[in-house]
Amino acid sequence: MKSLIVLPSYNESQNIVRLIDAILNLSSNYFIVLVDDNSPDRTFEIVKEYKSTLDAKVSDRLNLILRSSKDGRGGAVWEGLKWGIQNSNYNFECFIEMDCDYSHNPKYLACGINLIDNQNDVVLASRYPDGQTIGWPLRRVILSFVSNMICRIMIKWDIGDYTNGYRFYSKKSVKILLESNMIHKGYINLSESLAILMKHNSKVASFPITFINRQEGKSNTDFRELMNSFIAIFQISFRFWFGSK
Predict the structure, then answer these.
(1) Backbone angles phi, psi at 96, to 5 degrees
(2) What angle do CA 101, 203, 107 make, to 5 degrees?
């Protein structure tokens, strides 16, 4: 199945080339679009230089989008999904989003793609309830637990992990998202996107993964975004239960 992996990037130069190289070497059916928000650490330039070293066939599987400024992880992912739909000559059947810091292991790609191939609309590579998280500080563990519990209570209890950004989408699901009105562009867009798709009765599957906290670099999520995300959960829940499709 020809698949597009969307990598939303901002200040990820420590990990990005290693991740891209690993993905491209796994399968000739894996294509990548990097959406970089003009990272000050030259992430875009570093990947562009790496792309120039590849032979033509492999280079065609790595595409780059540079945005003028930081505009949120959710916005970057949707930009990459839009690119995949607009470039219909590639005929992508599966769309994937994952982080650039290697906390999302490429070895799980085949499992998620297989579940999309088995007629699921959305597949979550989940840390909860049966996966594992390694290397997180206690504060991060508590914040993740609380935010996911709020989402489960206010949106749909069946979903174990609303906030992990390792996801697989069918083409139909991507079109639903792109035809919807995005309210939140930051990390909380993960919960918003999932709520939108569930409101459209999308079939959601999941499988457990081991999430290993980044070995290099630091998280781009600050305290203000975390607090805004908690407020946004209530907006997303209201839209899920009372908004139109």
Answers:
(1) -130, 140
(2) 30
Q: Is the dihedral of CA 141, 144, 150, 154 positive or negative?
A: negative
Q: Are residues 98 and 23 in contact, defined by beta-carbon separation less than 8 angstroms?
A: no
Domain interval for residue 123: 3-242
Beta strands of 84-230 (E only): which ranges? 94-97, 122-126, 132-134, 167-170, 204-208, 210-212
Determine which of 6-10, 47-51, 195-199, 229-233 has the lowest per-residue pLDDT on average. Answer: 229-233
Taking alpha carbons only, the member of 95, 127, 70, 123 closest to residue 7 is 95
Q: Is 141 left (phi over 0), alpha (psi -120 to 50) or beta?
A: alpha
Retrieve residue 240's tokens.
Answer: 């899920």
| Number of domains the chain is built from | 1
CATH number for the domain including 165? 3.90.550.10
How far apart CA 110 and CA 71 sit, in angstroms, is 30
Instruction: Tell me the whole-structure pTM to 2 decimals.
Output: 0.94
